[in-house]
Each structure stands twice: as structure tokens, then as C-alpha cells.
Amino acid sequence: MFDQPLHGGLDRHLKRIARPLVWLVLALLLLAQPVLAQSDNPSGLPLPRFASTRSDPTNVRVGPGTKYDVAWTYLKPALPVEIIQEFDTWRKIRDVDGAEGWVHQNLLQGTRAGYAAPLLANGEVAMRQDPADSADVRARLGAGFKVIIKQCDGSWCEVTATSTDAGGRSTSYTGYVRQEELWGVYPDETFD
Questions:
Q1: What is the pTM of this model?
Q2: What is the pLDDT of residues 106-135, one digit of tens each?
Q3: Among residues 5, 29, 142, 156, which is most buried (max CB within 10 A)?
Q4: Pair 152, 99 in one domain
Q5: The Cα angle at residue 95 between residues 90 and 99, in degrees rounded to 5
Q6: Which domain holds residue 90?
């Protein structure tokens, strides 16, 4: 008789505690789901992410394997692409025009590259001497001008732009571009 009320009261108390704990565990599992899915990638790296082509030529295929047809070929190295999916040693990429295809992982590298993506109607991106709107302009980059991205702080990216004149001489400029005016880096992304 003494055990009956104690057991019934304890049972009700455990039920009141257990239900919120179950909901908490379920909520934590739902929050952890993207992290768990991320580790399912063969590389273990997050998706999507930016990379660049390693060599020339780089064949882009319609599926993840050499048995699939070549959809197109990149003829220059260090072109920026976004990796959006992984299958074994193959990476599904998207380019600046939105075209998607598959590339073997050995044909990609972690070097960050990007394209000038002007926000203003004049079609140019200002490369500045320092990461500030008031800094001197070192160069003006036309829409689609390719740059190598060295680092980004979430607002500004340090980049190098190389131009070649008609005689084949190259000139490089290093400076800072507003992060929002580059295709090849995510908003607020930081890296060095």
C-alpha cells in the first residue's frame, strides 16, 4: 500500500520530465541534420563551396564518370566554379552562367578565383588600395574580369587581377574589392 502512491506519483513526475526531454532531443537531432549530411560527402567538406579548375583543358561531363559524354571543356586553368554535389571522386559544379556538369576531383583545386560582378550601372568594380570605400582606386575591373581571391573578411576581399596587353606583356594589380561585387565567394564568408 505504501509503494502504490509513491510509484504512481513518481511515474507522473517522470512523464512530466520525459516529454520535454524527448522534444529537446528531437530538436537537437533536427538541428544537427545538416552537419550529419555534410559529413556524408566523400570529401567531408561543406557543400556548396567554391573552387577553381586546375588544368587546361578541363572536361566537364554530363554525369559522374568517364563513361559519360563531355558536355563542354574549359580551356584555361584557375576558372572559378561552385561545387554543389559530390559522388565518389566526382564533383558536380556550377559556373558563373549557371551551367552544371561533373568534373573529376583531380581537375579542381582549392585556389579561390572569382569574377567581377558590378552592382552599379557603370559596369565596373573598383579595386581599392585598402579595404575602404574612401581608399584610392588601383584599377577598375569590367564585368566578368577574372581575379584570384587571396582572402576575405566578410566585407572586403584582397584580390589580384592580371591583364595582358596586345604585345603579350602581363601586368598584375593587387587590391581590395567589395565582397558583394565578386562571384566566387559567399556573402559574409571569411577565409585567409
A1: 0.77
A2: 999 999 999 999 988 689 999 999 999 999
A3: 156
A4: no
A5: 85
A6: 49-111
